[in-house]
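Collaborator request, handled under Task 6.
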Amino acid sequence: MSRWLCILLLACATTAQAAPQAANPDDMDRFITDKGLLTRLEDVSHKVADRAHTVADQASSLVVNAMGFLGVPYKRGGSSAETGFDCSGFVRAMYEQTVGLLLPRRADQQAAATQVIDKKELQPGDLVFFNTMRRNFSHVGIYVGDNKFIHAPRSGAQIRVEDMGVAYWARRFNGARRVAGNADGESAQAK
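Structure tokens returned to the collaborator:
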């Protein structure tokens, strides 16, 4: 084995070339300017920053909008403030009104149509799912930050904010998901 290593090193040494001399800084600046590289880099940088701001703004708007529905009564199958909401109807309405994305109607369908994330990665606007009816993804809410979520809990209750650390919710936590509104509609459909 060492014989092959020696041959490889010898081959590399015979083909190695001296490093080119360092370019003159003025030549390098002229090259960057002539090729428009700095402008392209700035454009890409601005696009990335704009996209990050847009996502953050949408998440903030989503949470603020959802908070405006605190106290609206729960109604099984409900999907409006006038009639009341069930959990998935509430989530669907918030995403449609605020972000312009149409999520599926049922909680389990919403889980299937969104991107799995780790609980540690939760950000405001992400979805949190719970097993409240002895089946996975039977309940959904919108994460608002600080280990809390907003949801339409059950008959006789109203939309409210809950702590995910409370024993009831902690035992039933089923997963976290992120709504990825991509152009091809794979995860959620744009209106």
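The cover message to the collaborator said: "Residues 66 and 94 are 6 Å apart (CA to CA). Confidence is low (pLDDT under 50) at residues 14-20, 182-187. Please let us know whether this matches your experimental observations."
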